[in-house]
Design a protein that fits this description.
By secondary structure, the chain is an alpha/beta fold. The protein is built from 20 helices and 21 strands. Bound molecules: NADPH dihydro-nicotinamide-adenine-dinucleotide phosphate (NDP).
Length: 583
């Protein structure tokens, strides 16, 4: 396999400086965080994802083409997926392997793919190594083209999975589920959609993704802008053209500098007459060590290579005796200090990389992130930083304040008007909400989000008592994995096992017991309370934009290995964790 010269910095840097140095950096981190919190005390409410009236155009699907009228569907299936992204595809594959025939995907977009259907912005790619990220490579007999896959390859892989497992046959696209209501007498879910469908399904899987609904910052005057504008997940290629030649001679602005903007900015900088990048908080930009897959290596891969690779990733980290002894000799405070110092060293390397690439000193300073690595999604790119050396690219650093005003000509910051032809919102997505666009009513008609009002309550982040035969994928209280598809695969395997269990035993439904749910909520709370890390982080979607009090509303932090163990335990003792009803 070809070797890249520059290796990613990762978290491998060793702390070797006096403690005062690290303490001073931590003070600077705290100042930067407080500055941001002061500018936006309203937390997640600073954003909107309710796009009505003028804003509704930001959510229109530009890729769908003409939506053909069709008759409403009034039938019954065994398993119905809400959403057609990786969650649905992976779980369907496992269900098919267990002999389940009647599977329907109901999807808002015009095809399967989820994130990879919607996100087609120029430069779109995945930061997780493709041999790990692209799922079902053994089953699909496919080896990705490069070390890191680009968006179109991943989208094509999703379509290939849907073809292989015959998922297109019953799928309905251009269709949004609006209500999902449990009928206890029948032991079935009733599903209604925006196309007038009234379907029934025995099992429903909420596979609507973790970051699916685009959001916009609530910026004063946003709707008054007279130029062209769109959200990155609804890229307007009719305007920009596929090769971005439509931006020739145009002054373009992009709001946001998260993982999406980092990938889109190099292409925009090369195509636009002028590009203004409006930054509130910089991302950390590490090296992207990409290379084309060596065909000889690919040819020699043994059968089942990806499953073995994934199994290794799920194993508990093995420490040497020396490492164990060293750890045992440290107090918890010392361990945390050591981790923090190493993290700071890694961030200082990120800073030095910026200095070595970005020529203008003030721009280089402004691009430096001041927070612990992983407070925000780390980014990996080789062209983002050099783009700021172009004469036509301008960083507008709002130093944590953000753009607060837009008028008909474009954004205004500190009295300066930025007159734009095109304004692109790279402001991200609503996070991990179960039942977007949809009302889920379980036993006693209780809406799921009403049940969650005083805190999310689930078993494994997948089951919630009072919602029999409903499974949630990629939601809160599940484990977090940088390689999301590994997590989804683990959940998909578990869900397929539960459904298989119910079918084999002749049960119509299964529902988590109150005791099992209580156990899991406590597990989540206990593991979230271990460090003050979330509080110390700069605000972002990882920590609810600084709304720290929501302890049980995050991910399960006990580790992926433990999470998989707990799933296995639940599967081994189903009767202890669920109540069942017979047909
Ligand atoms: P993010 O939520 O990460 O970023 C939103 C950006 O908008 C932030 O930089 C935020 O600043 C900024 N912002 C919000 N309001 C304003 C304002 N008023 N003025 C200026 N800036 C503002 O969204 P992304 O779409 O970038 O990424 C979402 C996630 O999608 C990623 O975290 C990642 O998980 C996934 N993804 C993965 C990719 C990959 O594998 N490479 C590529 C793309 C996305 P602030 O930071 O201050 O809040």
């Amino acid at each position: 396999m070809a070797e890249s010269i520059e290796k990613p910095i990762g978290m491998t840097a060793r702390p070797t400086r006096p403690q005062e140095f690290y303490d001073s950096i931590k003070r600077k981190y705290a100042e930067e965080r407080d500055r941001r919190l002061n500018y936006r005390p309203n937390g997640t409410a600073q954003y909107t994802s309710e796009f009505s009236g003028e804003l509704s155009r930001y959510e229109v699907d530009p890729y769908a083409g003409e939506v053909k009228p069709r008759e409403p569907i009034n039938d019954t299936v065994e398993v119905l997926f809400i959403g057609g992204g990786f969650s649905a595809l992976l779980t369907s594959a496992r269900l098919r392997e267990r002999g389940l025939e009647s599977i329907r995907i109901v999807e808002r977009g015009a095809d399967v793919g989820g994130t990879w259907y919607w996100n087609r912005y120029p430069g779109v790619a995945c930061d997780v190594v493709a041999y790990d990220y692209l799922p079902l490579l053994d089953e699909m007999d496919y080896v990705p083209k490069d070390h890191y896959a680009k968006g179109p390859e991943i989208f094509a892989h999703c379509q290939a999975i849907a073809r292989k497992y015959n998922l297109y046959e019953l799928a309905t696209f251009h269709t949004t589920v609006t209500s999902t209501v449990w009928d206890a007498a029948e032991g079935m879910w009733n599903i209604e959609t925006d196309r007038g469908d009234r379907m029934k399904a025995r099992f429903v899987i909420c596979a609507n993704g973790t970051l699916s609904k685009p959001k916009l910052a609530k910026i004063k005057g946003l709707e008054t802008f007279k130029g062209h504008s769109f959200h990155t997940s609804r890229w307007d290629y009719a305007y920009t053209k596929a090769d971005l030649s439509g931006l020739e001679g145009k002054v373009v602005g992009i709001i946001g500098t998260g993982a999406t903007a980092v990938q889109a900015v190099p292409g925009l900088g090369a195509a636009a007459k002028e590009l203004y990048v409006f930054q509130r908080t910089p991302s950390s930009i590490d090296v992207r060590d990409d290379w084309p897959t060596d065909p000889n290596w690919a040819r020699r891969l043994p059968q089942g290579w990806q499953s073995r690779r994934r199994a290794r990733a799920r194993m508990e980290p093995q420490l040497t005796e020396e490492q164990k002894a060293k750890q045992a000799a440290m107090t918890p405070e010392e361990k945390i200090r050591r981790q923090e110092n190493a993290n700071i060293e890694a961030m200082m390397k990120i800073h030095r990389r910026i200095d070595s690439i970005v020529k203008d000193k003030a721009t280089a300073e402004a691009l430096k992130p001041w927070y612990m690595l992983m407070c925000k999604r780390p980014c990996f790119h080789n062209d983002y930083l050099p783009t700021f050396n172009r004469a036509n690219v301008h960083l507008v650093d709002t130093k944590g304040k953000g753009i607060t005003e837009i008028n008909e000509k474009g954004p205004v910051f500190e009295g300066k008007q930025y007159e734009l032809d095109v304004l692109i919102y790279a402001t991200g997505f609503e996070v991990q909400k179960t039942g977007i666009y949809n009302q889920i009513k379980g036993e006693k008609g209780l809406e799921l989000n009403d049940k969650y009002r005083d805190g999310i309550r689930t078993l494994l982040g997948i089951h919630s008592q009072g919602y029999p035969n409903l499974f949630i994928m990629g939601g809160y209280q599940a484990s977090f994995q940088f390689n999301l598809t590994d997590m989804l695969q683990a959940q998909g395997d578990h869900i397929a096992a539960c459904i298989d269990y119910a079918r084999r035993h002749g049960f119509q439904s299964l529902d988590a017991t109150g005791q099992a749910e209580e156990w899991w909520v406590n597990e989540v709370v206990e593991h979230r309370g271990k460090t003050t890390r979330n509080q110390e982080c700069t605000p972002g979607y990882y920590n609810f934009e600084g709304e720290f009090q929501r302890r049980q509303d995050g991910n399960y932090n006990g580790g992926f290995f433990q999470y998989c163990n707990h799933m296995n335990e639940v599967q081994a003792r189903m009767e202890e964790h669920f109540t069942f009803t017979k047909k």
